[in-house]
């Protein structure tokens, strides 16, 4: 098992990328679809590659693939076969790899940088339901059922050779442990980060204290980083402080822009500012985060401001 983060110094902050779906919308894509950004894998894959490239240019050390919403049941609802679904999942990784390789081919981009990583996004079971369940976590599924759901998708994603898995927006401890156990039992060479969605300063979206969920992942060596994403920025510092008390793993965070999401109307309200986002990241770094990026509604401008501060430029 190789930890891809080992190429970075423990004291060097790692810059994650920002939102994929909302950035695609900003560029004219219609994502009013249960497949969300995975729809663009089918219709306009080059746009996804372009977004990845722009995040690398903005300073991202890691690209998170457009596979968050991709699943065999979800694609099947659109009439795609298992073979077509697996191909699209592999494509999500290939697009990020192509963007990374194009970025790295320019020697000017290598100055002061480590070669960026590609993290295959693994969304929660609730993302497949496309009903906001990933912000509640009460699925009515057992640990074994969740393992069975994640198994074929993780196998398909790993077949494309990502550097690691980004298991993200996980709303409940049960699902996080199911993923970690699945990796341990069936994918021993895979490594992953597991990142939770939280509803306040202390608890997962489902209600379990984040500290308890983080502690439950501590025995799993393949989980190389833990943290919080898709959460309001105001909650991040206290959540990281709680996580730091129970974990010796790298801590990561990539919160939303600061705007508020209404899962019923599927609309965003409020405003965001790249410099304010980067300024807030100082608190997250002080609270222990060594991997910092953005989630929903963040843009390459946010990542550029963030990378500029983290790298002292």
UniProtKB/TrEMBL annotation:
The keyword Magnesium does not apply. One of its GO terms (molecular function) is methyltransferase activity. Keywords: Metal-binding, Methyltransferase, Transferase, Zinc. Its cofactor is Zn(2+). Coiled coil: none annotated. The keyword Metal-binding applies. It comes from the Bacteria. It holds the Pfam family S-methyl_trans. Zn(2+) binds at residues 230, 295-296. Residues 2-310 form the Hcy-binding domain. Its EC number is 2.1.1.10. One of its GO terms (biological process) is methylation. NCBIfam families: PRK09485.1 (NF007020). This is Homocysteine S-methyltransferase. The gene is mmuM.
């Amino acid at each position: 098992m190789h930890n891809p983060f080992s190429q970075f110094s423990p004291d060097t902050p790692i810059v994650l990328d920002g939102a994929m779906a909302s950035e695609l919308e900003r560029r004219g894509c219609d994502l009013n679809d249960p497949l969300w950004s995975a729809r663009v894998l089918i219709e306009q894959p080059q746009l996804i590659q372009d977004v990845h490239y722009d995040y690398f240019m903005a300073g991202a050390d890691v690209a998170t693939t457009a596979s968050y919403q991709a699943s065999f049941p979800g694609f099947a609802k659109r009439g795609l076969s298992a073979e077509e679904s697996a191909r699209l999942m592999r494509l999500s990784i290939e697009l990020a790899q192509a963007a990374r390789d194009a970025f790295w081919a320019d020697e000017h981009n290598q100055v002061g940088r480590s070669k960026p990583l590609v993290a295959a996004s693994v969304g929660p079971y609730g993302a497949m339901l496309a009903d906001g369940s990933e912000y509640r976590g009460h699925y009515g599924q057992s640990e074994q059922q969740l393992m069975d759901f994640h198994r074929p998708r993780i196998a398909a994603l790993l077949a494309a050779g990502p550097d690691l898995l980004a298991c993200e927006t996980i709303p409940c401890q049960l699902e996080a442990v199911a993923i970690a156990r699945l990796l341990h039992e069936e994918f021993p060479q895979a490594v992953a980060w597991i990142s939770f969605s939280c509803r306040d300063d202390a608890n997962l979206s489902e209600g379990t204290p984040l500290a308890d969920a983080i502690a439950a992942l501590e025995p799993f060596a393949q989980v190389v980083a833990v943290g919080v994403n898709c959460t309001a920025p105001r909650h991040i510092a206290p959540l990281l402080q709680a996580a730091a008390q129970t974990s010796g793993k790298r801590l990561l965070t990539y919160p939303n822009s600061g705007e508020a999401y209404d899962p019923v109307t599927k609309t965003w309200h409020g405003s965001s500012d790249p410099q304010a986002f980067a300024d807030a990241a100082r608190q997250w770094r002080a609270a222990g985060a060594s991997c910092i990026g953005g989630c929903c509604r963040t843009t390459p401008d946010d990542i550029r401001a963030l990378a500029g501060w983290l790298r002292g430029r």
